[in-house]
Amino acid sequence: MAKLKDIAELVGVSISTVSRVMKNDLSRSVSEDTRRRIREAAEKLDYKGARSEVKPSTFRIGCVVAAPQNKYNNPYFMVILGGIERSMEEAGLRLEFIFSVEKPTDLQQLQQLVKEQHVDGIIVVERIEPNAYNWIKENVRAVVGVDLPDLSVPVVCYDRMGAAQSAVEYLIRSGHKRIGYLGGSEYNDYYRLEKRYLGYEKAMREAGLEIDDSWVLDVKWDVSLSYELTKQAFEQNRSVPTAIFAASDTMAIAAMRAASERGLRIPEDIAFFGVDNIEISEYTSPPLSTIHVPKMEMGSYAVKLLFSYLNQEYTLPVRMTVPHQLIVRRSSGVVSDVEVVKSGV
Predict the structure, then answer these.
(1) Could you tell me where the beta strands, DSSP code E, fall in the chain?
(2) In what order do the strands lie in the sheet with 61-65?
(3) What range(s) does the HTH lacI-type domain occupy (predicted)?
(4) CA 80 to chain centre
(5) Which of 54, 93, 219, 271 could lock onto 88 through a cystine, CB 3.0 to 4.6 A?
(6) Taking Cα atoms as reference points, which of 244, 277, 299 lies closest to residue 345?
(7) Contact status, residue 2 vs residue 42, Cβ threshold 8 Å
(8) Out of 127-136, 184-193, 248-257, 266-275, which region has the weakest mean confidence (pLDDT)?
(9) 75: phi > 0 → left, psi -120 to 50 → alpha, else beta; which?
(10) Is there a cis peptide before residue 267, judged by omega within 30 degrees of 0?
(11) CB 122 within 8 Å of CB 302
(12) Predicted structure pTM score
C-alpha cells in the first residue's frame, strides 16, 4: 500500500507538503502545479483516499455580506473579505461573486446568482435578511458563517460580549463611572439585545454603576447618525459622561468629532473606546483605544472551514472563536495605577 513517503519521492517534495495537500491544509502556500502533481501521483500509486477527496480546484464559492453603508469601503468588512480572497487565491480559486443582501427583494437576484454560478458553498458574513439566509441553507451544499449566531452552521467569530465587557471594565478601572454607549442592532433586532451592548451592560452592572439611558444611543451603525445623535445628546443633556464606549471604531471616531466641536478635550474631559481596530484608528487625534479583532484571519479561517465541510471532513457544525485584544491608546487616557495592555500597534 502506497504511503505519503512514496508520493513525496515520486513528486520530489517533502512528506509534510504531501500531507498538507492531501488534507487540504492551507496554512502554508503550495502552488497549484505542485498540488496537481501530488494528486496525480496519489492516483497513480493508488494512495488510500486519493479518489474520495474532492479537489479544491473544483470548488465554486460565493460570498454573501450584510449590508452596512458602503460595504466595499467599510474598513471592517473590507479586511474580512480580503482574508477570504487571500485564502481562495492560495487554493488557486476565486470568489464567484460577492453579494450584499439588504432587503427581501434581493433574494431573487441571489437565487439567480447561485444557480448561474453553480456554487458549491457560500460564506455568509454577518446576519442577512432572514428569507435569503434560509434559502441559502436549504439550497447550497455547504454554508460557513462569519459572526453569525446560528448554531446549525459552522461559524468563525469573536466574543463580542466579552470584547465589549473588557473595554468597559478598563474604563471603569481608569476611574470612569458615567459611561455612555453607541451602537446598533443585529438584523432587525432590538439594539439592546446586541452582544456588545450586553457586554457594556454587564460590566456596568457588575461594577454597581448606573446606566444613563439618555447616553445609550442607537446610531444604527451609521457614521453620520453617530455624529448627529452624539451632538444632540451633548446639546440636550446637562450631564455629560466622562467616557463613551462605541461598538465600532467608525462610530467612535464620528462621536469624537462631535465632542471636539463641543469644546471637550479628549481624554481629559471625555474618554473614548471603540471596537475593531481598523487601520485609521491609530491615526485619529488622539489615537483611538480599541479592541483588536483579527479580521483577516476570520476571513481566512472561514474559507478553510468551508473546504473541510465540502470535503466531508466534518459533519457537526463547529464554532471557531478567535481571540480579541485590548489596544490602549490616548483617547481613553492613561492612569498610572492601571496596567496598559498594549499601547499603539
Answers:
(1) 61-65, 95-100, 121-125, 142-146, 155-158, 179-183, 216-218, 243-246, 271-273, 290-292, 319-322, 325-327
(2) 95-100, 61-65, 121-125, 142-146, 155-158, 319-322
(3) 2-55
(4) 6
(5) 93
(6) 277
(7) yes
(8) 184-193
(9) alpha
(10) yes
(11) no
(12) 0.79
pLDDT digits (tens, 9 = 90+) for 136-172: 999 999 999 999 999 999 999 999 999 999 999 999 9
Q: Tell the residue number behind the cell numbers 441559502, with chain if given.
A: 136
For the chain, domains (ranges, CATH) are 4-44 (no CATH), 58-158+294-323 (3.40.50.2300), 160-293+326-332 (3.40.50.2300)
CA distances from 123 to 66, 110, 305 (A): 11, 13, 10
- List, for residues 59-80, the tens digit of each pLDDT value: 899 999 986 544 445 889 999 9
Q: What are the cell numbers at 183?
A: 451602537
Decide: 243 and 332 in contact? Cβ < 8 Å: yes
| Overall residue count recorded for the chain in this entry | 345
